[in-house]
């Protein structure tokens, strides 16, 4: 392979996992403000398959226009191979992790041997975890953090006119739905870390793990509908979201809050107002500064990263097929240059 090409997973058209092609692509070159990272692992996230499918769930006028081919993916861990002249915070050889250029559709390009990243979106890789675990964390953990602890950015919110605001967690009861998935397993740990009593909702096979991660109460949604089993909750983080989120309004206290992580299709605005409940969402945004903050918690093992499965970069298609089967426990990660 010449020094100007690399292996990457690209799509040339929208579609199912079969459109993912492992092939040669131009090796990116750093621009001012950027670093070039040799990728060791790339985490996968729902926006990867939403983009692969052409964001079919969005109204046609919202669907992104992209110039094919594009390289999917946002989350990486690796080692810096080059830095632009104006970058002073990082050096060649530094191990780093990042959520790359989110939300900038088609510009993230993480499923590859190399990716360029704005230095402001990079943080030192937590030394206490490996590249697979570090690549698994960025989007899911930043989502939990920006919903629950600190929004940490002033980007416009495409999901609602008002700025999302986290709520106090200390001494509160927090229910996390979809608790075993990427966002959910971090939301459970963040709520616990911030002093909440945590109720985790997931399918039964995740109970032991979620209790280990700090859940005080576990509800198997296949046995008991959570809206019947819980009451007087201060905050519901619905990491499943969508049209079924409104059922959680019934479990919340007056003055409580519902954070649907996937808010499209939410239909309970009138009921929420009647019940005195705040419903709020945000869209996660890249932040090297926040990755440095949460990196200290990952490094210390205060927040753990759970790996569902790993696949070599060349098998990205299999990784997306695994994701489509659902019931993910933690994160799916692609290994690169392993
Ligand atoms: N707002 C943002 O910026 C943002 C950022 C990241 C993700 N998201 C959205 O957040 C959602 C979750 O993302 P993710 O990465 O955490 O997905 P994920 O890893 O696929 O996790 C989803 C979890 O939901 C569980 N689940 C499925 N059906 C359920 C049900 N009926 N009740 C309770 N749990 C159920 C699944 O396992 P079990 O069924 O086995 O329990 C799985 O663990 C996605 O819709 C994603 O698009 C939004």
Descriptive tags:
Rossmann fold, binds NADP nicotinamide-adenine-dinucleotide phosphate, seven-stranded mixed β-sheet, Quinone Oxidoreductase, Chain A, domain 1, 338 residues, alpha/beta
Describe it for me?
This protein has about 350 residues and is an alpha/beta fold. The protein has 2 domains: about 5-140 and about 305-335, Quinone Oxidoreductase, Chain A, domain 1, CATH 3.90.180.10; about 155-280, Rossmann fold (3-Layer(aba) Sandwich). About 20% of the residues lie in helices and about 25% in strands. The protein is built from 9 helices and 16 strands. Strands 3, 5, 6, 7, 8, 15 and 16 form a 7-stranded mixed β-sheet that branches. A 6-stranded parallel β-sheet has the order 11-10-9-12-13-14, sandwiched between helices. The longest helix has 12 residues, at about 180-195. It is globular, with a radius of gyration of 20 Å. The two termini are about 20 Å apart. The mean pLDDT is about 95. NADP nicotinamide-adenine-dinucleotide phosphate (NAP) binds next to α3, α4 and β10.
Can you describe this structure in just a few lines?
The chain is α/β, with parallel strands linked by helices and 338 residues long.
Estimated share of beta-strand residues: 25-35%
Mean pLDDT: 96
Count of individual beta strands: 16
Low-confidence stretches: none
First-to-last CA distance: 18 Å
User: Which CATH first-tier class of the largest domain would you pick?
Assistant: Alpha Beta
Helix content: 10-25%
Named at the architecture level, the CATH assignment of the largest domain is Alpha-Beta Complex
The helix/strand class is: alpha/beta
What global shape is seen?
A: globular
Main beta-sheet strand count, sense and barrel state: 7 strands, mixed
**Tally of domains:** 2
Per CATH, the superfamily of the largest domain is Medium-chain alcohol dehydrogenases, catalytic domain
CATH level 3 topology of the largest domain: Quinone Oxidoreductase, Chain A, domain 1
Structure annotation, total helices: 9
Bound molecules: NADP nicotinamide-adenine-dinucleotide phosphate
Task: Please provide the ordered H/E string of secondary-structure elements.
Answer: EEEHEEEEEHHEHEHEHEEHEHEHE
Radius of gyration: 20 Å
């Amino acid at each position: 392979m010449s020094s100007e090409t690399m292996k990457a997973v690209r799509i040339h058209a929208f579609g199912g996992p079969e459109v993912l092609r492992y092939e040669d692509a131009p090796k990116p070159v750093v621009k001012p403000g950027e670093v070039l990272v040799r990728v060791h692992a790339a985490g996968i996230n729902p926006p990867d398959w939403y983009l692969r499918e052409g964001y079919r769930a969005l109204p046609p006028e919202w669907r992104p226009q992209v110039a094919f081919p594009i390289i999917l993916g946002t989350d990486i861990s690796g080692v810096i191979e080059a830095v632009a002249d104006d970058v002073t915070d990082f050096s060649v050889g530094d191990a780093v992790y990042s959520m790359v250029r989110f939300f900038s559709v088609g510009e993230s390009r993480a499923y590859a041997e190399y990716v360029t990243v704005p230095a402001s979106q990079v943080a030192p890789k937590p030394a206490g975890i490996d590249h697979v675990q570090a690549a698994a964390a960025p989007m899911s953990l930043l989502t939990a953090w920006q919903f629950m602890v600190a929004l940490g950015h002033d980007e416009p919110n495409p999901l609602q006119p008002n700025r999302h605001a986290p709520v106090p967690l200390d001494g509160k009861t927090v229910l996390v739905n979809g608790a075993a998935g990427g966002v959910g397993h971090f939301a459970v740990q963040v709520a616990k870390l911030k002093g909440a009593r945590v109720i985790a909702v997931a399918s039964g096979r995740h109970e032991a793990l979620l209790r280990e991660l700090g859940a005080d109460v576990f509800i198997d949604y296949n046995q008991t509908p959570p809206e019947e089993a819980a009451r007087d909750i201060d905050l519901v983080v619905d990491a499943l979201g969508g049209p079924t989120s409104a059922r959680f309004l019934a479990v919340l206290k007056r003055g409580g809050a519902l954070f649907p992580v996937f808010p499209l299709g939410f239909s309970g605005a009138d009921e929420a107002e009647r019940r005195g409940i705040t419903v709020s969402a945000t869209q996660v945004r890249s932040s090297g500064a926040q990755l440095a903050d949460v990196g200290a918690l990952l490094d210390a093992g205060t927040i753990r990263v759970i790996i569902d499965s790993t696949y070599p970069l060349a098998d990205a298609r299999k990784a997306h097929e695994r994701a489509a089967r659902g019931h993910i426990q933690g994160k799916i990660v692609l290994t690169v240059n392993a």
